[in-house]
Design the sequence.
């Protein structure tokens, strides 16, 4: 789960890292609302120069005109208005962070992630930071330090990291404390990646987090109350309603996976896939055969029927569907009867049962009982459902789905 900047900074602040004074606005009608306008005016008069930042969890914002400085209140309002009229990767900008412009003396860089070889946290630290950090790190190696996940990071180790970067005197203690706090935040909140670029040193000698790019391990989100509402963490403008609702299914329920990955697309075939490798193979087969998926999602790890029921309801809420494909390889542990029972319950939750064709290709524990249940359900409600087991290649089931969609669209579906 990627955090937008102001949410990442909130985590850093809890770990003892200074962040610039700022306010967050998240209304597209901001300029026209006297309350917000007055709120910003008060902030601007307190701090004069400001930095206005679009809140999206992606890099290169400044290069896309989504981070701008202003020394004038009237100009600031124009910049805010312009940003709310921008889009990034097809999504509107709906949230801005407006911060005090700091008196910058120097900029540094730190990131923490996991080393794939040792599987321990790895710290990268550089005395050069800022907007062109990628180019800087290509030409000048940062200090690299692997931390023992068992022993943790000691004060001595953080001082050694800073010394290796060429710092002396009191700077060693200031920066080593900053890195220690960043590492504590990384561990406390189960981060997969944490980057602060730049670390800003002001002329008064104080250190601030100028930016924050933080990714939380999805499997650990339910451990932390601060992440209870996903809409408060990820910028809602980056997710469709279905994507947002699907993510909530797994948010506080670790029993299997259902909806953790959900991507809306512009096709007309709903996808409910099982198994990471198998589901991607099926998507490839569908695209190669000129099928048009309406979404990509999967359920696996033997989720309870309640989670599959909710995922089915969300997936099939798309009003533009002409077919539904339930597909996966042969399950080892997932109870096929329970998960397909959740699919049936999800169908019954819809305002109307679908008239479009449904193709099921599943195999695994209790698949025989599941298929018998689906046949009876289809007959009772006069649904167009075709069932295929492990004797049918998944690619063949995909082709059959496309054929049935064409028949349905041409009015020939039975």
Sequence:
């Amino acid at each position: 789960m990627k955090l937008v900047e102001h949410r990442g900074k909130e985590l850093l602040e809890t770990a003892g890292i200074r962040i610039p004074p700022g306010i967050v606005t998240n209304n597209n009608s901001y300029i026209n609302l006297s309350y917000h306008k007055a709120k910003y005016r008060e902030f601007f008069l307190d701090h004069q120069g400001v930095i206005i930042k679009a809140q999206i969890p992606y890099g290169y914002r400044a290069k896309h005109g989504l981070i701008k400085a202003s020394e004038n209140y009237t100009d600031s309002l124009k910049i805010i208005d312009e940003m709310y009229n921008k889009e990034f990767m097809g999504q509107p900008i709906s949230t801005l962070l407006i911060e005090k412009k700091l008196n910058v003396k120097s900029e540094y860089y730190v990131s923490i992630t996991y080393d794939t070889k040792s599987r321990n946290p790895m710290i990268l630290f550089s005395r050069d930071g800022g907007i062109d950090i990628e180019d800087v790190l290509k030409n000048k190696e940062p200090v690299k330090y692997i931390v023992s996940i068992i022993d943790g990071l000691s004060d001595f180790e953080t001082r050694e990291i800073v010394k290796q970067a060429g710092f002396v005197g009191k700077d060693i203690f200031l920066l080593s404390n900053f890195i220690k706090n960043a590492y504590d935040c990384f561990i406390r909140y189960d981060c997969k990646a944490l980057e602060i670029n730049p670390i800003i040193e002001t002329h008064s000698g104080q250190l601030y987090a100028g930016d924050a790019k933080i990714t939380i391990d999805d499997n650990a989100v339910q451990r932390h109350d601060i992440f209870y509402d996903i809409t408060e963490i990820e910028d809602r403008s980056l997710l469709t309603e279905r994507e947002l609702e699907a993510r909530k299914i797994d948010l506080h329920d670790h029993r299997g996976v259902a909806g953790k990955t959900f991507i809306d697309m512009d096709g007309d075939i709903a996808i409910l896939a099982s198994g990471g490798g198998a589901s991607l193979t099926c998507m490839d087969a569908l695209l190669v055969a000129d099928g048009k998926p309406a979404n990509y999602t999967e359920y696996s790890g033997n989720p309870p029927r309640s989670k599959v029921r909710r995922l089915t309801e969300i997936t099939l809420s798309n009003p533009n569907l002409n077919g539904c494909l339930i597909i996966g390889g042969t399950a080892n542990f997932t109870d096929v009867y329970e998960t397909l029972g959740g699919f049936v319950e999800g169908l019954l939750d819809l305002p109307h049962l679908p008239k479009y064709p449904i193709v099921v290709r599943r195999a695994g524990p209790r698949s025989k009982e599941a298929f018998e249940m689906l046949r009876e359900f289809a007959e009772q409600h006069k649904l167009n459902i075709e069932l295929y087991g492990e004797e049918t290649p998944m690619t063949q089931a995909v082709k059959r789905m496309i054929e049935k969609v064409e028949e349905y669209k041409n009015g020939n579906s039975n």
